[in-house]
Structure formats: structure tokens, C-alpha cells
Amino acid sequence: MDAFGKLLRQHRENAGLSQRQLGASGQIVLGRRWWQTAHRIADQSEDSDTRVLVRAWDVVNGCYDGRAPLAVVALSDDVLPLLGRQATSAVCGLLAGRAQALSLAGRHAEAVATVRQLVDVAQRLPAAVLTDVESLWGWPEHRIHHTESWVHTHAGRLGDAEVAQELALGLYPASQTRLRAQVQLHQAARLIRGGHIPDGLRCAADTLDALPAHLHNHSLRSVAAQVADAVPTVERSRPAFTDLADRMRT
Fold first, then answer.
1. Contact, 89 vs 53, CB < 8 A?
2. Under a CB-based contact definition with an 8 Å cutoff, are residues 96 and 118 in contact?
3. What is the model's pTM?
4. Please, where are the H alpha helices in the chain?
5. What is the rounded distance in angstroms from the CA atom of residue 212 to the CA atom of residue 204?
6. pLDDT over 90 for what percent of the chain?
7. Within 10 Å of residue 66's Cβ, how many Cβ atoms?
């Protein structure tokens, strides 16, 4: 990679981290301004992978920051024409975010199909991308299973969700405790959707309690809210449900 390429890559990574951190911390309005700037700079670069990468993380963040799911799906629709045949982390990120947004929109068959497309692309990634577990440029195996966990849980494909969750939790590095906790919250939602409501609520509460308070951010609370949403209305008088709601507010 030449000097300009290295500079461009560093700029993209720093911008991507800043935007993700703003969204994760709940600074939604400021985060949207960052995304608008990132979109403009990416388009000016005329680098197709940069354009896909910026929009991919925007789609992923849109699944956590309160945007309407159909609006996030529409954003992903706009990016699809930019995808080439090459397997990259940017393409995987876009497909993962699109699958999650489709799930939130209730379009579960499309979400599952998008996950299958993601798996197909990921199988063609270079080894250097698959083994990069920390940067925006990597796409390690646990990210695939994280997406599968989300999609299958929302779709009610509970057996597939359980398999994906076990695989993801077995692969997450120790440095990514919060993301691991998000998968554990998927487990809680799966238990609830499977009719094991007390177990699911306890799993969610234990997960939040075990995670240090400084790691509780907007993204984590968004996933915890999905656990609460999975509880049938007639079951929400349980003290454990109220307890979970209290934990989400602290």
C-alpha cells in the first residue's frame, strides 16, 4: 500500500471509530452530523470500498440509534448498487447491518436470506481480514455469528439462534466484553421467545449486572430493550420485568 493509501485508510478508520462512539454513547444528533460528513468525504474519495464502508457502519448504527427500521433498510438499499463481486469487510458490514435492519422491520425471510449472502461473502475473505479482530477493517468469524444470533432470534428460529450464540461467545476475544454481553442479551431474548420468560429475564439481568457500569452504553441498552420487547404484554407485570426496566435506565 502506498503512502496515500495508508493515509486514506487511517482517516477512514479514525472517522469510523468516532462515528460509532458517538452513536454508542447516545449522542445521536452529533453522530448524524458525523455521518453526513463521512458520506461526503467518502464520495469525494471516489473509492468504492470507502463509500460502502462508511454506509455499512451507518446502517449498522441505525439498528441501535432509534431510527425507523424501514429508513435503515432504505439506506442499505441505496448502497447495494455499489457492491462489486469482491469480498471485503465493507461488503460484509453492509450485509450484516442490512440483515439486522430487516429483522427490526419484521421482514424475517429477507433477513435470513441476507445472512446467507453474508456467510457466502465471508467465506471468500482473505485470511488477513478474518484474523483481524480489533479494527474496522477486519471481519472475524464471531461477527458473522453475532449477526446470525440477532437475525435468528428475531425470526423465531431459536435452534439456529442458539447455535450461533454458542459459536459467537466461544470466539469473542476478551477485549470485546460489551459485544459479548450483547450476544448474551440475544440469548435472553431467545429464552423469552421460547417461553422461558423467568429464565430469560434473569439472564438479561445477570448479563447487565456482570458488565462494569462504564461499559453500559446506548447500544447495549438498545439490545436490552429488545429483550424487554420480547416479553408478552400479559407477562410484563412480573417483578423481574420491572427490575430489568430499572436496570436499563441506570
1. yes
2. yes
3. 0.84
4. 3-24, 28-45, 48-62, 69-79, 89-104, 108-122, 127-130, 141-155, 158-171, 177-193, 197-210, 218-230, 239-249
5. 14
6. 68
7. 12
